[in-house]
Each structure stands twice: as C-alpha cells, then as structure tokens.
Write a structure and sequence with these properties.
Helix content is about 25%, strand content about 20%. It contains nine helices and 14 strands. Helix 4 packs across helix 6. GO terms for molecular function: calcium ion binding.
Amino acid sequence: MTFVGKLTAEAKEAARANNIKALSDNIKLLTGKYQKGSIPVNSKEGKTLNTHEEQMKRLVEHFKNVLNQNPPVNKADIPPSEELLAVDCERPPTGEIMKVIKMLKNNKAPGPDNIPAEELKADIETSTQMLYELFGKILEEAEVLLEWKEEHMLVDSTHLPGNNTANALYHSNSVTDYTTLIWQDPSLAGWECRTSYRWFIEHKPSLGLLRVKVEQQESLIVDSGYIYNTAINGGRLGVFAYNQTGAIWSDLLYSCTERENKALYLNGSSYGTLGNLSSLGIEKSFTVEGWINLPIGYSSAKLPFVCSNSSDFCVYIENGNLHTQIGSRIVSGSTILPANNWTHIASVYNAQGKSCQCI
C-alpha cells in the first residue's frame, strides 16, 4: 500500500470511529498543509530527550524556574494616559445583570468564588440586587470586597449572626455569649451533595419543647424527639449554612400557632433541665404536680421528679416517700407511694410563709 493509500485508509477509519483529531491530521497530510507542531525538548546540557517521561520532567523543571521568580525590585513607571478612553465606568443596570445570569451554563464547575450558576439562578432577583450593589462599590466607590459573599450572607456584629457566631457553631459545643448547644445528632449523619432534604424545626415556648427532624424523600434521617428546655422562650428564626456556599434553599416556610397549655409527659428515658431556682424567676407561690407510675421493685434511692441543676429546688422520691427541697430545707411526705399504680403527687410552696407541703 502506498503512503497516500495508507493515509486515506486511516482517514476513513478515523471518520468511522468519529475521531475528529485523527481525521483532521490525516486530511492535512493528504492536502500538504500539515505542520508538525512539536519541537525537540533538550536537557540543560543541550542533549535531546527522547522519552516522554524525560521530556515532561524537563518541562516541569523549566516552568518552575520561569514562573517562580522574585518580584521586581523597581516597580514599573507607567505614565498616565493623556486622554481618557470612552469607556462606560458606571455600574451595569439590573436588567443587564439578570440577562447575564440567565446565560450562565448549569452543571459547570464554579470559579474561585465557589458559587455555581445554579445558586445564582435559584433566586435571580436577590442575586441581581447583590451583584448590582457589589459593582456599585467597585466602580463608583473604588471599594473591592475580597470576601463579598460573607459580607452579604453574615451580619457584621459581635453577638448577632456574624463571623464570631460562625466560628462558635463550628466548635459543636456551647460558647459563652454566642451559642448554646441544646442537642446534637449522636450518629453525626452527613448530608450528601446534590441531594434534596426536608427538615422541620418545631418549638413550643409555652411548653419548653423543641424538636428537629430531617427527611430524605420518604426516609427519616434524623429525629431529635421532643427536647425539654425552658431557657428559650422566643427570639429570631433563621437558617445558617456554615461553609456550604453551594446549598440551595427552597420553600422556606414558618408559622406561629396558638399557645398550647398541656401537661408534660416524661416516659422515664427523657428528662428536662432546669438551671436554678433564681433563674426560673418564680417569686410567688407555686405548685408542682403530676401523675407517676413506679415499677414493681423500684429503688429506694433518690429518684428525682423535678430538680434544678444546682439542687436548690428538687422534688424527688426516696424510700417510697415524696420529698421537696427548697434551698437547704427539705419537707417529706408521710405516705408510701404504691408500685404499679398511677398516683397523683403535688408539692405546694407558699412564698408568703416560705413553707412547703407534700401532698
């Protein structure tokens, strides 16, 4: 087979295999327009390197020396232009910004700002306004925000949402004056990328109940159950996406329901936490009551019913009797509580006489 015939056969084979590069190279050779773009790579001593590994190693060494240069000692002296160019330096209008955002391609790797096109398009009105303000600072005020994402996403404050709060959240524990850890998923189940999740936060301040649930399609990923905490009786509602700039939020809904007044049910495995008697802010007379069902053969040791962390207030059962402690004073009941039976108990505190009674 002649040289031309061999090239023709290779071109046909490349066309059948849809190998565009090989087909183009063969056509250039057949038409006499082919130019070999590669030149020999020499070592520092001037010897030609024949193997691919040697050539790549030499190129890496060469560009390391070329690119890793010390900055020039003398800065370039560039004189100002004698006449200004007719360049529009005003911030672009919002319509033009929105048009450019719509033209961005999806499913592409984000740039240095780590913001994909999908995130900008998720709420295009907000993205347009953010970029409009950003361009205004750059073009009109000559102020370049290196971390402009954080400037818009976080409030610059000390005790409100800000960098300090973000750092406190990262520690996953309580940080004085910033965050209080109420509950943490014991399994620490991570969320997967490009996966939709539904989460619910339920808070009943009148009862001191909190609950967090996370679902993925029909599967329940996390359920905290009802957490009893009376320290939070209101406040702001918001969402933190810590170090997850690619997260897309949708259908964020909230509602305030009527106040609920009902008894707190504890099954023995759950419990509530109280600080101390003064933090509860109870200055008047009060009654603590409930129904209990003690198992057969229950322990004679101290079984707390309601106790503060500092133990300055505690309603407990010991040796079958009901006891109430306020400060250093302890009042005990006279009736042995039966087992395997629902029994109503009550502890009544009289603030005027500073006396307590177990019923």
